[in-house]
Automatic annotation (TrEMBL), chain A:
An MF annotation (GO) of this entry: sodium:proton antiporter activity
InterPro entries: PhaG_MnhG_YufB (IPR005133)
Native organism: Rossellomorea marisflavi
Protein name: Na+/H+ antiporter subunit G
Family statement: Belongs to the CPA3 antiporters (TC 2.A.63) subunit G family.
Keyword Membrane found: yes
PANTHER family: ANTIPORTER SUBUNIT MNHG2-RELATED
Subcellular location field: Membrane
Entries under NCBIfam families matching the protein: CPA3_mnhG_phaG (TIGR01300), PRK12674.1-2 (NF009314)
Transmembrane segments: 6-31, 43-66, 72-93
UniProtKB keywords: Antiport, Membrane, Transmembrane, Transmembrane helix, Transport
Principal location class: membrane
């Protein structure tokens, strides 16, 4: 039983480390702010949730401590990370950061015209 | 983490730096969790929650600052 649990914890920790590595490479290599933001927010969030889940299982099963603060932290990060990513992307657009020159769609560009037509 | 620090220092625009700082905070949470597993102590687990909240507040205030230039708006100008 405890051997299987050890393998599960190890799998969670390795998956979290791999996802964080992917997020770091994405932030380094992608061309503009929006794609970098996508890499950072999604991949780092999933990696952090894997690592915290592994930590929770470790303390619960190996030591018998039910630590509700880790569960609360998982829920909090899961809720707030997309909100933070969205806010940063919107602020970057309004402060005039350029898109990558190979991007094909810019829906926010003619938002004002659309608003004027439909009001 | 080194890559993220590189992006914080080098990053061409300010939103780049904010994105990298947010990801740095999130990675710091992971490192705290791993250290607390490594030394078998559950005393550090409050730090995880605190760092999560601080990273989120920092991101939100930075984005408000980038968008309007004022962090706390006052609408009562009469």
């Amino acid at each position: 039983m405890t051997e299987i649990v050890n393998y599960i914890i190890g799998f969670f920790l390795l998956a979290g480390g791999f996802l964080s590595l992917v997020a770091s490479f994405g932030v380094l290599r992608l061309p503009d702010v929006y794609t970098r933001n996508h890499a950072a927010s999604k991949s780092a969030t999933l990696g952090i949730m894997c690592i915290l889940l592994g930590t929770f299982l470790y303390f619960y099963i190996v030591h018998g401590i039910f630590n509700s603060k880790v569960l609360l932290a998982i829920v909090f990060i899961f809720v707030t990370a997309p909100v933070g990513g969205h806010l940063i992307a919107r602020a970057a657009y309004h402060s005039g950061a350029k898109l990558w020159d190979k991007s094909v769609r810019d829906d926010l560009k003619d938002k004002e015209k659309y608003d004027r037509q439909h009001s | 983490m080194l890559g993220l620090i590189y992006r914080v220092i080098k990053g061409p625009t300010t939103p780049d730096r904010v994105v990298a700082l947010d990801a740095l905070g999130v990675n710091l949470i992971a490192i705290v969790a791993l250290v607390s597993m490594l030394i078998d102590s559950d005393a550090f687990l409050e730090v995880i929650l605190l760092l999560g909240i601080l990273a989120f507040i920092g991101t939100v205030s930075f984005s408000k600052f980038l968008e309007k230039g004022a962090i706390i708006e006052r609408d009562r100008n009469r």
